Amino acid sequence: MDSKVAGKRRLLQLNELDEFRLSAYDSARIYKEKTKKWHDKRILPREFAPGDKVLLFNSRLKIFPGKLKSSWSGPFTVTRVNKFGSVELVNDKGEEFKVNGQRLKVYHEGATSRDVEETFLTPLPT
């Protein structure tokens, strides 16, 4: 057991460990950049104008859990659109509040899913 040889070997191991750490850091950075690029490519641009009717995604409401419970509340009216994506809304009672524009979607007043066409069938003669 020579202490000089053991010391050189230990320094070599520390240098290899440092290179491995830097390589892992670069790999993680590249992965994060690719993931961010993929995510940003799929974000839909949402542009609202004052006077638009919108629905608000309510992610905090967990009172009635279930598949059929709608997580959209509203409609609300847009009063102001700020520069970096925040939107000021007003509800039916006149209360104003700010939300992130990514939590909104346009409300189409005329379109309802409850418009059903009824068709009556007559029994066939036997």
Put the structure in a nutshell:
Helices cover 31% and strands 22% of the residues. It has 126 residues and is α+β, with helices and mostly antiparallel strands.
Question: Which tags fit this structure?
Answer:
126 residues; alpha+beta; five-stranded antiparallel sheet; 1 helix; 5 strands; elongated
How many DSSP H or I helices? 1
Q: Helix fraction? A: 25-40%
Which stretches are low in confidence, meaning pLDDT under 50 for 5 or more residues running? none
CA-atom Rg in angstroms:
29 Å
Identify the quaternary structure here. single chain
Order of helices and strands: HEEEEE
Percentage of residues in DSSP E strands: 15-25%
Secondary-structure-derived class: alpha+beta
Arithmetic mean of pLDDT: 86
**What is the tally of beta strands?**
5
> What coarse outline follows from CA principal-axis ratios?
elongated
Q: Roughly how many Å apart are the termini?
A: 105 Å
Strand order of the largest sheet: 4-3-2-1-5
The largest β sheet comes out as: 5 strands, antiparallel
